[in-house]
């Protein structure tokens, strides 16, 4: 499966923004030192933002 570099960069920026919003300090590259709670809070924030964006697009 081919990846689109622009999409990968955008997703990384989105992830960093979500992490910042929940107070998790992500580094570029490996972040295996995060707790499951921290990683889950970043993923959860990303999902919340995606749902909000979708709901806004439906208006």
Q: Biggest sheet, open or closed, and with what strands and sense?
A: none
> Strand portion, in percent?
under 5%
- Percent range for helical residues? 55-70%
Unreliable stretches, pLDDT < 50, 5 or more residues?
A: none
Shape annotation: flat
Mean pLDDT: 93
- Rounded radius of gyration (Å): 13 Å
Please give the number of β-strands.
0
User: By helix and strand content, what is the structural category?
Assistant: mainly alpha
Number of distinct helices: 2
Distance between the termini: 34 Å
Q: Give the topology string: H per helix, E per strand.
A: HH
Q: What would you say this structure looks like, in words?
A:
By secondary structure, this protein is mainly alpha-helical. Helices cover 66% and strands 0% of the residues. It contains 2 helices and no strands. Helix 1 packs across helix 2. The radius of gyration is 13 Å and the shape is flat. It starts with a helix and ends with a helix. The model has no long low-confidence stretch (mean pLDDT 93).
Task: Give me the secondary-structure topology.
Blueprint: H1 5-21, H2 36-57
Helix pairs in contact: 1-2
């Amino acid at each position: 499966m081919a990846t689109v570099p622009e999409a990968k960069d955008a997703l990384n920026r989105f992830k960093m923004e979500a992490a910042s919003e929940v107070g998790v300090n992500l580094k570029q590259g490996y972040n295996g030192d995060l707790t499951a709670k921290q990683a889950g809070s970043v993923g959860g924030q990303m999902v919340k933002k995606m749902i909000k964006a979708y709901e806004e697009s439906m208006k």
